[in-house]
Specification:
With about 350 residues, the chain is of the alpha/beta class. It is about 50% helix and about 15% strand.
């Protein structure tokens, strides 16, 4: 059976990872102290445990409170650049070769930054992080996804940032936040703007709300990928013989190969299942959906890409072929030019997995 250490040596792709959900506790403490923001504790180990326990409490109020603290630590250009730089190094040290860091620029203007200054500061951090990672022999490509908070007043302002910076490190757009009561179609003007400008976007849908959220994201808004999308399983029925029948929406999502950005640990915290063994990821894999494996918020879930795959190894007996399959799925689905995706698949992912399989015998 594959170990976490063994999985960490394999190349991986992270499509759904929130920049404000993966900070180092020491960075949070230093930045919040400078910004005058009070934290639950000043001890890094205790703070790490607090984040996980708050996110794992079953209380949505406590879960959302965790982001109050991380966002408070990301309010100056230097703070944003440092967080982005560390994001790259932390991913690279876990064997990630490509990642997309998503965040909401509108949440980082409390001290007077312009939205464009936020994007540029994050870009500087990602660039310096990639340079350091390469020097350390851990080549990685990281891009930004800029996000609008869906409970806010719908505008095209953040979507336009994605268009303006699409050749400068921003690969796409997303909406995030509470799904129930805030359907994707509220941001229809933003999605129309993106489509007119040939710009990629993913939509958080089918996480805390069910099939109507997924239907709107796909059929009204035209999402290239689904952020989570795990509740597509609600459109799949099982008869007394164990035969699975896909509803029309599930069939459409599968047939058109719309990628699902599944986040197993996070999905458990938000109530999709009580145990990893009950997570629908295995069913969706076996039915041929284009699933990808992601962390969502590494700090809140106390996880990494290697740990997420490790849980699937333990729960479902995944082997190296399964991890490779999910990784290739993710690379195919990345908001990166086709030739660059192909180069990473053929030049890095497949040769690395082939070598690992040879060592395993």
């Amino acid at each position: 059976m594959l170990s976490i250490e063994g999985i960490a040596t394999l190349p991986k792709v992270a499509l759904h990872d929130h920049l404000d959900g993966g900070l180092r506790p020491t960075t949070i403490i230093e930045h919040c102290s400078a910004n005058g923001h009070t934290l639950p504790t000043q001890d890094p180990d205790e703070l790490r445990r607090w984040f996980f326990e708050a996110a794992d409490s079953g209380s949505l109020v406590r879960y959302l409170e965790t982001f109050d603290h991380t966002v408070a630590a990301m309010q100056t250009p230097d703070q944003l650049a440092r967080v982005a730089h560390e994001f790259v190094l932390d991913q690279a040290s876990d064997g990630v070769i490509y990642a997309e860091a998503r965040y909401a620029p509108e949440q980082h203007v409390r001290l007077g930054l312009e939205l464009s200054e936020v994007v540029e500061a994050v870009g500087r951090g990602l660039t310096s992080g990639m340079a350091e990672a390469e020097e350390l022999g851990m080549a990685i490509v990281v891009q930004q996804i800029v996000t609008s908070m869906r409970h806010g007043e719908p505008t095209i302002e953040i979507a336009d940032l994605a268009v303006r910076y699409r050749h400068d490190g921003v690969c796409g757009f997303d909406i995030a936040g509470a799904e129930d009561g805030f359907p994707p179609s509220r941001f229809q003007a933003a999605f129309d703007h993106l489509k007119r400008n040939n710009t990629h976007f993913t939509i958080h849908a089918g996480e805390a709300f069910g099939l109507p959220s997924i239907w709107e994201a796909v059929q009204l808004c035209g999402a290239n990928r689904l952020g989570h999308g795990v509740r597509i399983v609600e459109d799949i029925t099982v008869d007394e013989t164990g035969h699975h029948t896909l509803g029309e929406l599930a069939s459409y999502v599968r047939d058109t190969r719309i990628p699902l950005e599944l986040c197993p640990s996070s999905n458990l915290q938000t109530g999709i299942a009580e145990r990893i063994e009950e997570h629908p990821i295995e069913l969706l894999k076996n039915l041929g959906f284009r699933i990808t494996v992601n962390c969502d918020n590494r700090l809140m879930s106390d996880t990494s890409m290697s740990r997420e795959f490790g849980k699937l190894v333990d729960a479902f007996g995944w082997g190296i072929d399964d991890i490779e399959w999910a990784t290739v799925n993710a690379m195919k689905s990345a908001f990166l030019p086709f030739d660059q995706r192909l180069a990473l698949i053929q030049g890095v992912i497949k040769p690395s997995y082939a070598a690992s399989k040879a060592l395993l015998g």
